[in-house]
Amino acid sequence: MNIPVQRIAVTAGEPAGIGPDLVAALAQDAHACELVVIGDAALLQTRAAQLGLPLTTLPYDRRASPVPSGGGRIVVDHVALSAPCTPGVLNTANANYVLATLERAGTGCLSGEFAAVVTAPVQKSVITESGTPFSGHTEYFAELCGAPLPVMLLCADDLRVALLTTHLPLSQVPANVTHERITRTATILNTGLQQLFGITSPRIAILGLNPHAGEAGLLGHEERDSIEPAIQELRGHGLNVSGPLPADSAFTRESLAHFDAVLAMYHDQGLPVLKHAGFGRAVNITLGLPIVRTSVDHGTALSLAGKGEADAGSLKAALQLAEDIVSQNQRRGARVHS
Which CATH architecture has domain 150-281? Predict the structure, then answer.
């Protein structure tokens, strides 16, 4: 059975950052899908020239049959910059450009035009300074898609870490560690592991919030009041969850061997471990959306933009995961209709 070539959107990210550099590097490799880069074509060509990389940009025609990308040729759905761009120099005038690329990719995925979206890094601060509150890709796509609870999952090889709370000040985390949020997040994580990674009965470790997972209430009450009751409810629904586990011992090699994923209570509880284990090749995937969205594990790296020093490993890994998920969905669809 011939499986058709799929289109995957790639947003070019913050124009002053390394996003355009990474896209130019991505275009050099052969891909099974057609990449449709959403961004400014002239910016991509200029940045590629600065890096000494061959790049031919082809205008996107949604009516044409998709063909695999590679060899320094890439299809671009052109979105014009709002203002000239200098590598490493942020400009709030280009915040609307960045948001326009995200909206185009998201709506294209919702309509079925694109099978997935892979995002290069954006600068949250400059978007917010422009007058549009912006806490991150995860929350942006959730609002665009009407998804009530997006879940951030980062993967580095077999290590998978999901977050109960994402881009919140640490002072606001305890109030958001609730019974309902834990049960909903763990359920979304369980479904994502089944559907996207083919794990039939995912084993999920749920961390405590406090040191030593609260030490029976001595070091905090969130475990007793919220986390433990949520775990009991999840088990009652058939989920294979364990915890609450102390974060300082849950990430040992021996402990991780018993789990397919770890649910951390907050951003810097789980991600430092994951990034230590796989920075530069880890992938961020958003669960709980009606679309497939993967991303890099790093920021805009303004100081590296245009210098040829940026590592495209994480963006390549994000694209590979998106391709794998899309291929798996195609095979599943073929089996259903055979």
Answer: 3-Layer(aba) Sandwich (3.40)
